[in-house]
Amino acid sequence: MNKYSHLFICLFVLLFGSSCGDLLNQKPVSSITNESFWTNESDATGVLTGAYIQLRSMTCDQLFTLGESRSEVVTKAVTGDIYERYYKNTLSQELPGPDWSTLYSTVNTANLLIKYIPRIDATEMSRNNLLAEAYTLRAYLYFVLVRTWGGVPLRVEPTEGYNPETVQKGRATEEEVFRLIKEDLDNAIALYHDNTFWASRNRFSKPCANALKADVYLWTAKRCGGGNADLETALAACNEVQQADVMLLPNFGDLFEYNNKCNDEVIMSVANDIYDGGDNYFKDNYSGIDGSSTDPVDGEVIGTGTNGMAWTVSDLVKNQFMEDDSRKAPSFTDGLRGGENGEIEYPALIRKGRGIVQNGHRYFRNDFVLYRLADVLLMKAEAKNALGQDPSEEMNLIRKRAYGDNFEKHIFVSRSKELNDEEILKERLLELVFEGKRWWDLVRFGKAFDIVPSLNNKKGQDHMLLWPLSLNVLTREPQVGQTPGWGD
Hints:
The chain is mainly α. It has 19 helices and 10 strands. The strands form 5 sheets. Strands 1-3 form a two-stranded antiparallel ribbon. Strands 2-10 form a two-stranded antiparallel ribbon. A two-stranded antiparallel sheet has the order 4-7.
């Protein structure tokens, strides 16, 4: 990040109500206002950079928790049950998990960009591309919000000073939230100049907007009564993604190497560099082992981390990987032993986001991949199957890479819709495990109560598919009200 980006982030913070540490005590800039700030492309790019930093904070800290931790994937490791309320599904308004403050802070930044980009001095193409990124960002954030808490407050105007009508809002309906998401995506796709990626693939793009569109329309087709019309839209969006410069990497393990970020399979990832600060969620499921131990897959020193190993992959999930599945070893490492005579057996290490070791210390700074081509191919298979079409092509593209020379033993053959869905959902587990997708996959397929052990005896308690709000949020936002079913 260059010096101008830092300048604009700090100006943005000073203008719009966050804090920038000691900078607040150095040089007042009260004379800068919205009227004087939003003048050129650099102004907008600086604020957009700040939005991506906010997004990084959310993805590193919350996205795995919201998108996967309540599924059957993880369980206790060695440092206590600090996360047991997630995988045991014992949430409450006293212990609810993440709240939405970070998400709405980033929504506000997107709202500022959407409001002010049209007035900056820049070429039409530059303005349109920047505006498209802002619309895609807001659509993505509201998609996280609505899948997590259901109907949520709709804030589409930036907060520029205290205005009760802007700040204090009740919940919109899920239908209203999805209407905004779809409108934002239509606006974004129409504004992007072409179907290309930024060089780093760490910024929103037209291929990413289409991947998100497929995800959104699959959800509304299955959860909101959208039916075949939404399935057709999802399928068309997947096809659009495939027209971009994107391909499956030949070797699955190469996807998650620290030095292979933004590879040709990635559609959108949130940048997280070793010098940026802020470990991602993998710090809790890889570290905690003596620094002298080595990873038996590649002989790499495991390194020490600041956190203990809080959770690990469950036996239920481990046992679904076949030995000839090339995705197994890059996803987790089992059977590690330590101690002087190897008498200590460690829980499985989750390897997809293991980061990089420098000077004996492991830094968990992998990018968080929001979308990659394999995900889109499996969404395409899901849409095709729901429409009564044969999903074999997409399923076998995934399996051919996974099983290599043994592919002939694992060829997918289309059967009934129900049986195909079972196979597609399992394939998504094997392909995307630990990438923050599983919980939402289970909810979309209607299988959470069937597959998650801690929910097996709670069928019919559909409120548990959403998350409760914390008492802090309820106090701060009195018009919102608790997520239905959680306040009883």
